[in-house]
Write a structure and sequence with these properties.
Helix content: 40-55%
CATH superfamily of the largest domain: Type I PLP-dependent aspartate aminotransferase-like (Major domain)
CATH class of the largest domain: Alpha Beta
Largest sheet: 7 strands, mixed
Strand content: 5-15%
Number of strands: 12
Distance between the termini: 55 Å
Order of helices and strands: EHHEHEHEHEHEHEEHEEHEHHEH
């Protein structure tokens, strides 16, 4: 019996066995509230602080710079809205044209408070353009957010270089990077990024084989942030609410494992990606962002005049889980805003699908996927040819009757 193959790791990843093992005690006997003064509470608090250290080490940060949140979206919102609220007056917020919805949406909400959005254009590979940065610097935005790795194409941005330009040209401006997709897949050093001018970055557990419901904003302690959630003062007063202890413990275990395996896994996934792309090119696929540095596990591609949702549905029935565009914005019926920003024609952008590889994927999975894709393309071409033939026959009959 054929076992379904999961090829959607940028959407989420399965929880690693070691991570689940670390979490289980905190879903049972170790049930304490970290704010409680008794032994159960102290044990929970100790577990959280251990996880904070693990996340900090993996990100190249200090534990006091790690603020736990429920997800990458909350971490992104905490930075944008938190800095905006603390600034006391509206200004300009600069975001790249290919940001995740959890950056784009809060930026749009700031407009209601008097802020103005400045969108940084990208080139045909999805990289923020130098001219776009130069033009934006002339407007002197006080708030910036440029993602480290794109969730759809895997394309990497030179965040350190952009941040250093901002620091030099706009003293006092604040710079953030959404590092949710990059964390655990490529080397990351918040200390180096911070020195370049990055004040905060967002990371999440469920992208690195940890549980959903745990993430962090890693922020320079000098950053003045207004909390989104007020209450008991947890997380240095920046994120009140009883902590999700089990998920946070899982987060720590996941990043520790990911850091230890990152180099080996990156090499392996790069090899699988190359195998996949060779097969895709042989079928005539367009691969987006291929000219740029990318995450080792991500391939975004399309076939002209072929609907991406149709392809996803048929491959799902064939036993392969992939995504059309970004999983977090799958409700949007239009083409990907990322591909539109890259100048991809609409007839191609609407067909975009994403394969994102993970630890359980093998060369056999790639070969089986390519065979299934080839069969699917052949079936769709036959259906298209049949539809055209029937349309012509109907037109001929109508013309004859008239």
């Amino acid at each position: 019996m054929f076992t379904p193959v999961y090829l959607d790791h940028n959407a989420t990843t399965p929880v690693h066995a070691r991570v689940l093992e670390a979490m289980l005690p905190y879903l049972g006997a170790r049930c304490g509230n970290p704010s409680s003064r008794h032994e159960y509470g102290r044990a929970a608090l100790k577990a959280i602080e251990r996880a904070r250290e693990q996340v900090a080490v993996a990100a190249g940060a200090h534990p006091t710079e790690v603020v736990f949140a429920s997800g990458g979206s909350e971490a992104n919102n905490l930075f944008l809205k938190g800095v905006a609220a603390a600034s006391g007056k509206p200004g300009i917020v600069a975001v790249s044209a290919v940001e995740h919805a959890s950056v784009r949406a809060p930026a749009r909400q700031l407009v209601r408070q008097g802020w103005r959005i400045l969108e940084l254009p990208v080139d045909d590979a999805g990289r923020v353009t130098p001219d776009g940065v130069t033009t934006a610097l002339g407007e002197r935005p006080s708030l910036w957010s440029v993602m480290l790795a794109n969730n759809e194409t895997g394309v990497l941005q030179d965040v350190a270089n952009i941040a250093s330009q901002v620091r030099e040209a706009v003293p006092g401006a604040y710079f953030h990077t959404d590092a949710v997709q990059a964390f655990g897949k490529i080397p990351m050093d918040f200390r180096a990024l911070n020195q370049a001018g990055v004040h905060a970055l967002s990371v999440a557990a469920h992208k690195v084989h940890g549980p959903k419901g745990a993430a962090a904003l890693i922020a320079d302690k000098r950053l003045d942030l207004f909390p989104l959630i007020a209450g008991g003062g947890q997380e240095r007063g920046l994120r009140s609410g009883t902590e999700n202890v089990a998920a946070i413990v899982g987060f720590g275990a996941a990043v520790e494992w990911a850091a230890a395996e990152r180099e080996t896994e990156a090499w392996r996934l790069t090899e699988l990606r190359a195998r996949l792309e060779t097969g895709l090119r042989a079928m005539g696929a367009a691969i987006f962002g291929a000219a740029a540095a990318r995450l080792p596990n991500t391939v975004c591609f399309a076939f002209a005049d072929l609907d991406g949702e149709t392809l996803v549905g048929r491959l799902d029935r064939a036993g392969f889980a992939i995504a059309s565009g970004a999983a977090c914005s799958s409700a949007s019926p239009g083409p990907s805003h990322v591909l539109v920003a890259m100048g991809v024609p609409d007839r191609l952008a609407r067909g975009a699908v994403r394969v994102s590889l993970g630890i359980e994927n093998t060369a056999r999975h790639i070969d089986d996927f390519l065979l299934a894709l080839e069969r699917t393309l052949s079936e769709l071409k036959e259906l298209t040819a049949l539809h055209i033939q029937r349309s012509r026959s109907l037109s001929h009959e109508i013309a004859h009757l008239s």
